[in-house]
Amino acid sequence: MPPEKTVSQAPGTLDPKRWHALFFIALAQLMVVLDGTIVNIALPTAQADLGISDGNRQWVITAYALAFGGLLLFGGRVSDLWGRRRAFIIGLIGFALASALGGAAQNEAMLYVSRALQGVFGALLAPAALSLLTVLFSNGKERAKAFGVFGAISGAGAAIGLLLGGALTDYLDWRWTFYVNIPFAVVAAIGAVLYITEPENARNRSTLDIPGAVLASLGLVALVYGFARAEHEDWTEPLTVTMFVTAAVLLAAFVLVEARVKSPLLPLRVITDRNRGGAYAALGLAIIGMFGLFLFMTYYLQVVRGYSPVRTGVSFLPMVAGMIIGSTQIGARLVTRVSPRALMAPGFAVASLGMLMLTQLSLDTSYVAVILPAQVLLGLGMGTAFMPAMSLATERVKPTDAGVAGAMVNVSQQVGGAIGTALLNTIAAGATTAYLTDNAAGATDEQLLAFSAMVHGYTTAIWWAFFIVLGSAVISALLINSKGSSRDAGASGDDADDAAHVPVMVH
């Protein structure tokens, strides 16, 4: 296990290596976010190479989602207890080894195991990365810049994954969509050893809440699996319904346990705060819409328009550019001058306008006239909103709760992604089937009919995505009431009072 590397520092003292640390934390976050989409592009090729059946191919995605989503809260609290730097390095090493196993897979079982292990170590790595950012950057203006970079990567990484996955699959081999993680992880781990230190007062010295960990992990696994199954089966299928009921019971029991135990896995104050709760909800809804959009736009460009995987990835670059500009140039510059709500509500509203433009897709929609400006609006809007939302979601918590607060950001994103993929896919499939039924009689060109039905299904689902993202704007406007400040944003309110009494241990 990597040695602890903590520093004992006076309140308000800033780590001189914090900007170097940001680079390696951002690199690790990029690796985790890329993995959410990069494998999707390579899946058809990997399926053919390893002889995976159509019925089983979903497990390449689901194995990762279940392990990652189910263990996030546990991973977040473990990083609070072990130390974020230690959890960060272990997560990186484990993720690299799991990726090597996936790249070397000789059969479907090896591939499933590697994806599950990626999820396990990702659930340790992702909360540790975000919580390190939280404890290293407490100054308001610097925090804004750091979260601007982090927000841009979190938002744009999925689109970059589509481009990188297409390029690696086209020009090298599907196995490189796994191997590419190894250099990311190695460089980030070396950087963590050299540049990342953790304030001693940020460590949590309490015991691990085992009952809470079991209930949260099983509840989240049941929830994510329920949505994954609904996508491929039916929402009323008995096992799907059983999973949702089980998830509801386990998560309700988890809340009851957390309200009673001395050292909870997830202190309820983390999520009952109006601003943090609003940020989690807004982020979750936005991810629902975005995941569905990535899926439908990828199929539209490749299947209907005949784009290659690489060209499809390149076509998403305007969205990536918009997210980077929105997060680092708009959000980060304005967040210390205006309230988070003044960025989040308009940001999500602008993103919903981009969705609205994409509801007009047809068989021959102009990329330059419609798709490109829609992507720019989506990128600018999401980038502008994600930056203050992520900062707000981890702001004003006790330093000892930073890991689990960061985990909640990832939980909202992971559950949002599962819901978005399942819900919007179901809506699109239903609309496609209805279109085929209504128009089959008079059709003379079957391929034209099939493509027209697909596009109708996509636009129907994108209409839903528009209203969902608009819901993020409404939640931001109604729930977020934090004034925002350029002063130090380590803690305030009740959490600040508690945090002030956390002892600084000098070695």
UniProtKB/TrEMBL annotation:
Keywords: Antibiotic resistance, Cell membrane, Membrane, Transmembrane, Transmembrane helix, Transport. The keyword Protein biosynthesis does not apply. This is MFS transporter. Residues 21-488 form the Major facilitator superfamily (MFS) profile domain. It is found in: Cell membrane. The chain crosses the membrane at residues 21-43, 58-75, 87-105, 117-137, 144-164, 176-196, 208-227, 239-257, 278-301, 313-335, 342-361, 367-394, 415-436, 461-480. One of its GO terms (cellular component) is plasma membrane. The keyword Nuclease does not apply. InterPro entries: EmrB-like, MFS, MFS_dom, MFS_trans_sf, Sugar_transporter_CS. PROSITE patterns: MFS, SUGAR_TRANSPORT_1. It is a multi-pass membrane protein. GO terms for molecular function: transmembrane transporter activity. Gene3D superfamilies: MFS general substrate transporter like domains (1.20.1250.20), Multidrug resistance protein D (1.20.1720.10). GO terms for biological process: response to antibiotic. Its main location: membrane.
